[in-house]
From TrEMBL, chains A, B:
Family stated for the protein in its record: Belongs to the peptidase M32 family.
Source taxon at top rank: Bacteria
Protein name in the entry: Metal-dependent carboxypeptidase
Function (record text): Broad specificity carboxypetidase that releases amino acids sequentially from the C-terminus, including neutral, aromatic, polar and basic residues.
One Pfam entry name: Peptidase_M32
Amino acid sequence: MSEPLEAKRQEFRIYLRKIRSYEEALGVLYWDLRTGAPKKGADMRSEVIGSLSGEMFRLSVAPQMEEFLNYFEQSEIREQLSEVDRVIVRECRKEFDRSRKIPPERYEEYVVLTSQAETVWEEAKKKSDFAMFKPYLEKVVAFNREFIGLWGYEGHPYNTLLDMYEPGMTVDKLDRVFGELREKLVPLSAAIRERGDAPDTSMLRQTFDKDRQKQFSLMMLGQLGYDFDAGRLDESVHPFATGLNPGDVRITTRYLENDVVSALFGTIHECGHALYEQNISTDLYGTPLCTGTSMGIHESQSRFWENMIGRSRPFWQRYFPDLKKLYPEQLANADAESFYRAINVTKPSLIRIEADELTYNLHIMIRYELEKALFGGELAVEDLPRAWNAKYAEYLGIEPSNDGEGVLQDVHWSSGGFGYFPSYALGNMYAAQFMQAMRRELGDIDALVGEGRFAPIKDWLVDKIYRYGKLQTPGEIVSRVTGEELNPSYLIAYLEEKYRDIYKL
Amino acid sequence: MSEPLEAKRQEFRIYLRKIRSYEEALGVLYWDLRTGAPKKGADMRSEVIGSLSGEMFRLSVAPQMEEFLNYFEQSEIREQLSEVDRVIVRECRKEFDRSRKIPPERYEEYVVLTSQAETVWEEAKKKSDFAMFKPYLEKVVAFNREFIGLWGYEGHPYNTLLDMYEPGMTVDKLDRVFGELREKLVPLSAAIRERGDAPDTSMLRQTFDKDRQKQFSLMMLGQLGYDFDAGRLDESVHPFATGLNPGDVRITTRYLENDVVSALFGTIHECGHALYEQNISTDLYGTPLCTGTSMGIHESQSRFWENMIGRSRPFWQRYFPDLKKLYPEQLANADAESFYRAINVTKPSLIRIEADELTYNLHIMIRYELEKALFGGELAVEDLPRAWNAKYAEYLGIEPSNDGEGVLQDVHWSSGGFGYFPSYALGNMYAAQFMQAMRRELGDIDALVGEGRFAPIKDWLVDKIYRYGKLQTPGEIVSRVTGEELNPSYLIAYLEEKYRDIYKL
């Protein structure tokens, strides 16, 4: 590499680290707000967040950024760059163009709108009053249509939104994979509710001391390989994981006294996200590539650890005795098998975030189809409640009695997060596909889990996925690791096998 | 006010709020580092802190700041400003000049030096090796002498350093007040150790469950009027208070299992700082005046609440029964009076931070005299250990057996904090002087404390001191509240009365 190029490269890295500094500071501020910041300080804290966010945005669209990008994109320069640097330039260009194509005054209006829309949504959800939320949602959708116009799109307008969360994902691909899922999972879910032998879940709903739940969660984090020198566990209303930097990846959970597994599975889920962020390769530190590659791949890790490991039979064969020691009275009449069946109960329900592993995918599919229709121009905002309810009847066999437990249940749309929902189901599909590859290469995974030996599993994931951070796209990772494109049949097979066994079908 | 002036005024306020945003963000980052941030994230967190500090500094010395100041300092503009705005301009000018007079490259060298010096000091303290620390300390002192030359000084070079922590404080004033203190407190301390009836302190050194200590600390914060909606209590190695904004003033303490009062008095001490910051007038919010006016006045509040309230007889007449309920076995043979005497034991000791209320002032006086001599050119760094030990022998009647428990004990000098120490003793003097004024105006303070009625006391302090923030100088506050200048005789009278009673002299 030539000397001036190397100097420029270093200058660029420093510039990117400065942006990253704002990102990390903002991460700490958000974490703090959600884990116990006193309420009277919130107004001034918002001002701080606004100020720092503004500065970070300014840096990311500054003329200096454009100069860097133009320089490194020259073909004779580009070919001298390392792979890491090339991907950094590509990702920064993508972000830069996305940000610069929106007129700043329109973007500011949009930020104000979504902030109002979230507040109105909260109220509307409480009152089950879609009419109240409708004008705001219409504006949010209109803004997103306008942005898609400015950004451009290929194929379907919704593709541009999908790409923000899952680079490379398209309506064509999702139609295909969701089609396969629907074809198999809708009948499976129906068969279970018609002929299945439902597990007894009464043991789960007793009183379980919170301190002991915490003790069990902490123990489990240690078992799974979460690095406490590079993270901490706190409490918050909604569990989350936040990677401030790879040496500081925090998770939170929420202890419910009347539910023995909610906090535990929340912890394991966030642990999956955290293992990803804690194990990114050091040569990506301080760069924009030092994070998970997409929402879908991230979600594949939280769901892999939560569901495929944490809700598996060998896991509870190993850990049920430990749990029983903590709650000898409550679990007196339960054993590993009955507990395993109880925590895997599946039942059509109205609320996505309370859904089980099987029906969860159907909740997502509904949202995907509605969003696609909205941005394809086939559905108007005012028709959403009707369309929502019809799909719930079709896929899950139940219908919301009001919009609060229907179309108003999720926060995503009020904040403009269209295109995000598919990540959750993609995560499930990726996870099953990775598991298949892992079984091929590591052999008897169930035996490892049954012995509480998670290190080989974690190490495999680090080697195959985590260390790459954002250096490879989701598509590149899936192809390299599994030898094929995204394929929903692994998830289908996994769910068929697991649930037919549990429900004795 | 004219329209363009009003527009400029608002523009300036926005500029200052932006600087404040960085300050608050940095406050959260420091709080986080000290209350449990995972250690592996520390390096990248330092980079974030460096980046944000740099940006904040840049804003505070930017040409735009100078333009604002030049504009508002024009006499026809200045006379249209409110008092608040005038003081803001005055304080910003002071800061601006102080920062601008140091060449940036010299300042950067200094920052690097003090960072190294702190690391070396830590090691040197452990090894009691002054020679190891000496070359660093010499450089830190030389830098401070150079800065004083650039800043200028009146009377004594050390005055410029004193003014940084206690605006308006001078060697002349301190010589006078410390002279009076020394004249009375050195003989009092000597008389106590020669003829005093020493309290039995064995009850304090048993095993005291930490959760119960925490419970007692939290209860006490509530009693004293600490607002938990505008703060929180955490744990850290060294207790501290941090006012992120008036709606978020956090405190920390440290629970020692073998000491029943250490955490409690740490909590009450920091609560005093926090009450000050929580109760600043809303019209100062978001301005540089929204903080305590000086280190000395701040320390007066922590010490007022910790010592004059928390270590008083009526306080323990009221709360000892509550404490005894938590530790019935350990305190079985104690009563309020014996406990009161035990927690007020005084004894010459070598370590400042472990010193009692009476001898603490002597520790400060020693440091003041040495700093004054260093910057007056009468003492060389290499002669510090000898001078230190001689003064301990003279004022406290004891001598360190090594430099680790002598001249190397405090962190302040390694980080260049010359001029800071006097604040602690000033705090004691101010506190006693305020107490005198409070007794004049509120009547029987002891009766209020004995009933646990702290609201009138807090309200008086809010009205007289807290709400002003930095709008008045320490000198202005003391004169307005007490009707006279700083006067050490109140502290002397308070200590004479308290300790002669306890030691039956």
